[in-house]
Amino acid sequence: xxxxxxxxxxxxxGSVWRSRxxxxxxxxxxxxxxxxEYAKALDAGIAVSHGNTAExxxxxxxxxxxxxxxxxxxxxxxxxxxxxxxxxxxLRKFQTLVQENPATLGIGDTCRSHSGGL
Length: 118
What we know:
mainly alpha
């Protein structure tokens, strides 16, 4: 029978949390595991997305195009990247679908208007 106080199994090596201040909160049991995973990810410094899924996709497309521009090697046919060619058709279709009808792709978020298209 425990008499209370500190034993060899309590307060072992300290907290596993990097943050040192704590607060007890009440959360629904059904969400507790998911909230703990989220809290541990934040505490570990792992980036957690809070953004709109469609915005993230459109930003990734813009980032990819910029990457291609920066790493483009001119050839005898073109001196700069041309995203209006047929090779870019599918990416343009995908970009338009994300902008205009993200629900078709299973993205429930609404999307801000992106002016920078292909």
